[in-house]
Amino acid sequence: MKQSRIKEKGQTSFKAFAYAFSILSIVLLLFPLGWAISSSLKDPISLYQFPPKWIPEQPQVVTIVVDYSDSDMSDQQALERDGLKAMWYSWKRKQNEAIGEMRTIGMRDGRVLYEMKMRAFEFNAGRSYVLPTEVFTDQMMKTKYMLIKERGYSHVTWHGLDSETVYSPKQRAVSSTEDQLSAQIDAFLQSSSFLEGDVRTVSQSGDWMRIFDNYLAIFKENSLTSKSATILNSFMNSVYVVVLSIFSQLLLGGTAAYAISKLIGKQWSNRWTLFFVATIMIPEVAIIVPLYLVIGELGLTNNLWGVILPHTSWGIVIYMFKGFFDQIPDEMLQAARMDGANEWRIFYSMIVKLSIPIFTVISIMTFMAVWNEFLWPLIVLRDESLYTFTLYITSEASRPRAAGTGQSTMAMLLLAAIPLMVVFATCQRLIERGVSWSSGVKG
Amino acid sequence: MEKVSLAVPLKYRKKKRFPILAALFLVPSVLSFVVFKYVPMLYAIVMSLFDFSIMNPPGPFVGLSNFIHLFKSSLFQTALYNTFVIALLSLVMTFWIPILQAMLLIDIRRGNTLFRFLYLLPAAVPSIAAVLIWKWLYNPDYGLLNAILERIGLPAVGWLNDPAIAKFSLVLPGVLGGGLAVLIYYSALQGVSREIVESSTIDGAGPWRRMISIYLPGLKFIIGIQFIQFLATAFLAFDNIYVMTGGGPANSTNVMSLMVYNSAFKQNQFGMAGAISFIIFAIVAIITLIQIKVSNKE
């Protein structure tokens, strides 16, 4: 269309309005998403700060230097435990602050005995196992020492009693009062008695790299806990359900719709179409309780197949498939038949290839619906290890847990959006085509 | 045409009646639809007539007393009322917004694909996750919405804790529009003939006039379809209510779908759940029939 369009009155101002309206709509639409992203990057204190801020605080790296010059400790384990105490107990005390990483350096007469560090995601993953409450005793660390080592929450480097490494402070050696956090930690350690060594300095510096630790914590928690219900596990459950639902839908729906459209007489075709498509009218909620009993009879409660199988009875899938097959001219099939191809051969060598667009469209529509599904898996699945992703995030979000886990919930919610975002970004055209097909308008 | 079909030998045409392959293709789906759709539907009706016991089905026959009990109970009356109010609220507040968004999008040439993508993007967040994000926005103490209200000098609102506005808060996220609905209307608008649009322009119709007299009538069919789906979805809404309020505060958001779930899986009253299911089905069927009647008349 290369004709010059006729300028009309009010054209320019209308265009400006259309742009302004659309941009405003989109900004408002993305606003909850933006807030979720901002929340997912925050430390607990700024998460619950009022009035809220959009920009998260910069995570701080805190270094504690412990001096053993006046102590005659020589046992490696005891020394390491001491360092871990300094690190874990002061972090636990300040657990809601924006701490990104903590380091402890143990030294004697200018020589480094040990160095240890722990990043925020490691502390967050481990703290409910290592320090569920603020019990800062020697005994506490004795019982948890092995756990910390086994699961690798903290990284400890042992230099040895006769170490050659000279202690050289890289950061400011003295904690100043303007660094509130390190001053507070210093005061906390000075006033407590669980440490064998003397706290020499506590210092801090900012590090933006640790801003994504709420996300890393989710995966660390996954790989370092004995829970059977983990985020990765529920993610895989969802993938399993989605993939098998799509596959069984394409197989059952595709074949049935092809039979209706091409293999049987007109009268029977109409009857069967009605049989399938009329079920679109049955609301899900209205049959969910008896459906649960039916699934129980089949022995599929608390089983992922109990979630998958009812997806093979979607009237809309048959409707869309039939609409597509009806457009394939009968003459083509007749020609193939005359060439001696049998019906099965025609179906799998000809129709399947022709139908790739409709297969894709239905796959995407099913993906969106099943990935989001909540009520049906909620009813069918009991074991947390079988939970799909939507169930998992809901149960995590509603679980009364220690304060300061709201940010990892937000991170989890955003992770849940990634698969569909990828689908949208890659298959926008197909979705638009599918949208116009499923709503009965030929695109 | 006639000649082609005559040329087909008889034995091939005969095959079209009901070949084995057709039966093979149909049986699994028929089985699936019977087991997962038709049996449960009949089952719901049967259940509603019994004081249904899961352990020892079906339990004693009670006739219509489940229904009578329901209509007498104030809890059900409240749920029925809430269901209608929430559906009506979302109709008034949200149904027309994607239509407007699509109609204004059709005149945008530059970056149209990007706009469509951005409209679609929020739909990538699973509805449950979106609900949880909104719950966080609504948080009376730390939520962003109350912070904004405070900033502009308005008193804080107990979004989900105040029975008077909890229904409104449930519907509010939909006001932002977007999602698949925009794409549906947009693709329907592309079906509106360009010639009619051009000729109306020549006849001197301004852009607003064009929207009302050409685009809107062009959308009539799809709006009808969407209307039914919208009402059905609004009537059956479960996820957002279950997660946001769980029916509270003071039953002000307790709806029928929630009652089905609670009476079956929380209170073990399966007969009652069957009765409510049947009522839901009847309401949705009536709405659909009215819609079909209306659209046939036109």
TrEMBL record, chain A:
Signal peptide per UniProt: none
Domain ABC transmembrane type-1: 235-426
Membrane topology category: Multi-pass membrane protein
Biological processes, Gene Ontology terms: transmembrane transport
Keywords assigned by UniProt, alphabetized: Cell membrane, Membrane, Transmembrane, Transmembrane helix, Transport
Cell location: Cell membrane
GO-annotated cellular components: plasma membrane
Listed transmembrane segments: 16-37, 239-260, 272-295, 307-325, 346-371, 409-427
Protein family per UniProt: Belongs to the binding-protein-dependent transport system permease family.
Protein name: Carbohydrate ABC transporter permease
UniProtKB/TrEMBL annotation, chain B:
GO cellular component, one term: plasma membrane
Membrane-spanning parts: 20-46, 79-105, 117-137, 164-186, 218-238, 270-292
GO biological process: transmembrane transport
Similarity comment: Belongs to the binding-protein-dependent transport system permease family.
Name of this chain's protein: Sugar ABC transporter permease
Cited PANTHER family: ABC TRANSPORTER PERMEASE PROTEIN, INNER MEMBRANE ABC TRANSPORTER PERMEASE PROTEIN YCJO
Compartments where found: Cell membrane
UniProt-listed Pfam families: BPD_transp_1 (PF00528)
Highest taxon, organism lineage: Bacteria
Keywords, ordered alphabetically: Cell membrane, Membrane, Transmembrane, Transmembrane helix, Transport
Entries under InterPro entries matching the protein: ABC_transporter_permease, MetI-like, MetI-like_sf
Species per Swiss-Prot/TrEMBL record: Paenibacillus agaridevorans
Domain ABC transmembrane type-1, first and last residues per copy: 80-291
Main location class: membrane
Topology relative to the membrane: Multi-pass membrane protein
